[in-house]
Amino acid sequence: MTLDNIKEEIEKASHIVILTHESPDGDAIGSSLAMYNALKQTNKKIDVIIPECPEIYSFLTSYDEIKKEENEDTKYDLAIALDCGDIKRLDGFAKYFEDAKVTINIDHHSSNTMFADFNFVNPDAPACCQILIVVLEFLGVTITKEIGECLLTGIITDTGGFKFAGTSRETFEFTSWLLGIGVNVSEVYRRVLEIKTKGNFALTRIAMDRLEFLEDGKIAFTYITKEDEEKVNAKTGDHEGLVDLGRTVEGVEVSILLREADGFFKGSLRSNEYVNVSDVCMMFNGGGHARAAGCSIHAPLQEAKERLINEAKKHLR
Amino acid sequence: MTLDNIKEEIEKASHIVILTHESPDGDAIGSSLAMYNALKQTNKKIDVIIPECPEIYSFLTSYDEIKKEENEDTKYDLAIALDCGDIKRLDGFAKYFEDAKVTINIDHHSSNTMFADFNFVNPDAPACCQILIVVLEFLGVTITKEIGECLLTGIITDTGGFKFAGTSRETFEFTSWLLGIGVNVSEVYRRVLEIKTKGNFALTRIAMDRLEFLEDGKIAFTYITKEDEEKVNAKTGDHEGLVDLGRTVEGVEVSILLREADGFFKGSLRSNEYVNVSDVCMMFNGGGHARAAGCSIHAPLQEAKERLINEAKKHLR
């Protein structure tokens, strides 16, 4: 059983690195710090490397111990990738993964490419953090209040605050259990989902103003350029949530956000009831989940917009 | 025990009326319809009277059976008030309550005036619907999927989607149980809390554009005029949530919305951590709770704005 292998490899290793996907969200950081805090209960040497980590997660235990970089020659006994569907998304840090003696991949993306020696992937889990509940229990780790807060951060992020369809009985039962061990669920919720940075507010205002309803109001579209982000002095993560502005308006099935990157546009798609946006994004070599997916389009804004909308509208009823 | 009395009185009565507070929200309507659907499992004659019922709740079972009015001479064996802290808030319908042979009051407001023959009030419950879980169980009612949806509607409304501090272990455990009996929690959440009307979206866009940060970013201010509401064809309730646009931005302690009424402005105030906005509003003969309050100011926009901000800033740290 994979969990037996994972346990064995963690027990054998003395120098372990924890990695997650680029542009990390609450599930990426929550699962990385949960695993880090769990393994710190042992005597092993553990690194967690995340180059750009949004400050809103600074309330999590060991946030200050996250490394932004590491000596290129470092060779780890074991590398653990969390919440990462593809080795390419480890960004500049795939090197440590590839160089490690043994690799583990724990994730919940249905598009996971099974890139490690041991892959523990459950696409039914609404968050990687929810998978970690099982993994940590199997490893014999005590889930402390601090680890619980990390796990809850991922769960709240990836369920949209217990809102998305994937939210399961285990999600609610675990949250109830966390309340029992003293986790302030309401405060974690506020920090993770509710408080908006000034940058996010400014981008929200811009994206709201540009929001268009197309195809009889079934598609909502908006965009953000690099210039916008510079103008409002946006920081990592400040674009989070913009794609939901359109998704929550009555009648909208698909919401699309285009965000300018270096020479291309990143598309974020969300759907409400029936359009599989992962299928839409796959047409542009992207992917994700049925109700939340992404892709990159190497084209100017207007062309990228048209191509995405043309693809999305094929799926409308 | 009060629950024994409640059970006995329900069993004895053959004509029962269910009432709730004026301007009913999801907890008022959810608890009324949960009780109605529960008592319909018996052979009794049951009325639920709610004069103005927002259409967003029309997905709930028996919504179409809600009476908007009733013959003035009708005398009930038993009247049950739900989610109502004060008999005055039953509005024009206190008459049926006062005329009933026996009265029951089931509620969660700490300010409840214990106005019935039998009062089952638990201020620790985050929603009246959460109290009904216990009550219905005691009555031997089977909580069907349909009743579960009504209860969940109240719970989601009054916990802000599992967000507010009062959300308890029971809230999460019951929601997990509802998933188990087939309730589509995600869909109920979406209908109750997430879907924005076109009018609300349009007003949000206007209020966002006007939002100002004052007093070192501790006060957020915005406003909506009658002309705005006419222009976007706004309906009842379309201004809901506008005051939260500013409240959720980092650093903001007090958020103020002025909304033009007939010849005056209605002020809505929210605070996050320490300002008692009820105290602020009392200076204008208004009031409410410490974190959410309102008042009316008979002055032009600019003057109303200045007066409110001058009062609010006295409370800042």
Which features does this protein show?
homodimer, 317 residues, alpha/beta, inorganic pyrophosphatase (n-terminal core), Diaminopimelate Epimerase, Chain A, domain 1, 2 domains, 38% helix, 18% strand
Identify the biggest protein-protein contact and residues per side: A-B, 36 and 35 residues
Using only C-alpha atoms, the radius of gyration of chain A works out to: 19 Å
Q: Please give the count of helices of chain A.
A: 12
Name of the CATH architecture of the largest domain in chain A: Alpha-Beta Complex
The number of distinct β-strands of chain A equals 11
Question: Looking at this structure, what is the CATH superfamily of the largest domain in chain A?
Answer: inorganic pyrophosphatase (n-terminal core)
Outline of chain A? globular
- Taken as a percent bin, the fraction of beta residues of chain A is 15-25%
Number of domains of chain A: 2
Helix content of chain A: 25-40%
What top-tier CATH class of the largest domain in chain A fits best? Answer: Alpha Beta
Distance N to C terminus of chain A: 43 Å
Q: Please identify the structural class of chain A as seen in this structure.
A: alpha/beta
**Quaternary structure type:** homodimer
SSE order of chain A, as H and E?
A: HEHEEHEEHHHHHEEHHEEHEEH
Descriptive report:
The structure is a homodimer. The first copy, chain A, has about 325 residues and is of the alpha/beta class. Chain A folds into two domains: about 190 residues, inorganic pyrophosphatase (n-terminal core), CATH 3.90.1640.10; about 120 residues, Diaminopimelate Epimerase, Chain A, domain 1, CATH 3.10.310. The first copy, chain A, has twelve helices and eleven strands. In chain A, strands 6-7-8-9-11-10 form a six-stranded mixed β-sheet. In chain A, strands 2-1-3-4-5 form a five-stranded parallel β-sheet. In chain A, a hairpin with a 4-residue loop joins strand 6 and strand 7. In chain A, helix 4 runs antiparallel to helix 5 and helix 5 packs across helix 7. Chain A is globular and about 60 Å long. The termini of chain A are far apart. At the A-B interface, helix 6, helix 7 and helix 8 of A face helix 6, helix 7 and helix 8 of B.
